[in-house]
Amino acid sequence: MASPDTVVFLGLGQMGLPMAKRCIAAGFKVRGGDPSASARDALTAAGGEAFASGSERIACRRRRVAAA
Length: 68
What we know:
By secondary structure, the chain is of the alpha/beta class. The protein has three helices and three strands. The protein has a single domain (6-59), classed as Rossmann fold, CATH 3.40.50.720.
């Protein structure tokens, strides 16, 4: 399970990736999932930890914040 200082993004698209990068810059540990390998690679390049599998997404759940 992610620690309280970890932010998890489910979706690294037009909103998710920029928000994830801002969280990394603010000092948070960031994990993110997306079906797109290029989106996951961009998160990793920014200093985050990426995942693709559904089981990893479920394991990260503690609190959820959704943006639509």
